[in-house]
Design a protein that fits this description.
CATH topology: 434 Repressor (Amino-terminal Domain)
CATH class: Mainly Alpha
CATH superfamily: lambda repressor-like DNA-binding domains
Distance between the termini: 32 Å
Helix content: 55-70%
Shape: extended
Number of helices: 6
Length: 104
């Protein structure tokens, strides 16, 4: 059987098209990924290491590493410590219609 390159985005869209549960799980994991990705980017842009964040936040370096890992869900308390230690703030805003429609 010859090797066939798969377009991941098309394959995901095809599978979630008729599976609302899969679509919900996919969208949630994408949001988690984007938040973690943004946190790590901002920390790096500020020139901070995980050890720096640990010292400022009172968390261990291992806890900081876990917060930055996709498959881990930190406690809200630890997440806030992390965010505060890098000088960021969390804002909660109502979703706009555009945001709702932009989901896969």
């Amino acid at each position: 059987m010859p090797f066939k390159k798969v377009n991941e985005k098309e394959e995901i869209e095809k599978r979630i098209k008729n599976d609302n549960e899969l679509k919900k799980e996919y969208n949630e994991s994408q949001r988690e990924y984007e938040i973690v990705k943004q946190l790590v980017k901002m920390r790096n842009d500020m020139g901070l290491s995980q050890s720096d964040v640990a010292k400022k936040s009172g968390l261990t370096q291992q806890m900081v590493s876990r917060i930055e890992t996709i498959d881990n869900s930190p406690t809200l308390k630890n997440f806030i410590k992390y965010v505060d230690s890098v000088g960021l703030e969390i804002k909660i805003v109502k979703k706009t219609e555009e945001m709702e429609c932009s989901k896969v």
